[in-house]
Design brief:
The chain is of the alpha+beta class. Helix content is 42%, strand content 11%. Strands 2-1-3-4 form a 4-stranded mixed beta sheet, with helices on one face. The longest helix has 12 residues, at 36-47. The chain is elongated, with a radius of gyration of 18 Å.
Length: 166
């Protein structure tokens, strides 16, 4: 197997706190099934992914079939059902970023982190994902780490940016 493994094979998956889920679903969203996407977003913010046991629990709690919740969670690329790193790196490969060298940035990230797209570093520090557009075309090429945008980035700056995140 390569140097980089899926995080699930190297790190214990965090247990789901059902009391915490109760508080989230009841108090923040009033058990309203119309808030399904927002509830999934809140769960993902808490765990950095949507644990599968949380889907089952959410189904029973708000009265929506598990298959429907799973469908929503897998339809939107923003949701992950697999554990991810503490820091999510999104490299924009949209047209504007592509013509300004985004592919070279992605190659440097692959070399530096020893992971391919969609993989998580062995230490659980970073997950790398390529995206089609971040919406900062004038700043291309753009690399987003968590919610921080790094625009007009060059290959020489990649290591410096990565060093800012634990």
């Amino acid at each position: 197997m390569s140097e980089a493994h899926a995080i699930g094979t190297e790190q214990a998956v965090e247990e789901v706190d059902f009391v915490e889920l109760d508080t989230l679903i009841d108090k923040e969203f009033g058990k309203d099934k119309e808030n399904l996407i927002m509830i999934l977003q809140a769960i993902q913010r808490r765990y950095n992914y949507v644990p599968k046991p949380a889907l089952t629990y959410l189904s029973a709690k708000i009265g929506v079939p598990h298959s429907k919740i799973y469908e929503v969670a897998t339809f939107y690329s923003t949701f992950s059902l697999e554990p991810r790193g503490r820091n999510i790196i999104s490299i924009c490969l949209g047209t504007a970023c592509h013509v300004r060298g985004a592919e070279r940035i992605r190659e440097r990230l692959h070399e530096s982190l020893h992971v391919a797209d969609g993989q998580t570093t062995e230490d659980g520090r970073f997950t790398l994902e390529s995206v089609r557009c971040i919406g900062c075309c004038s700043l291309g090429p753009v690399m987003k780490v968590n919610e921080d945008m790094h625009g007009r980035i060059s290959t020489d700056e990649v290591e410096k940016v990565l060093g800012q995140y634990e």
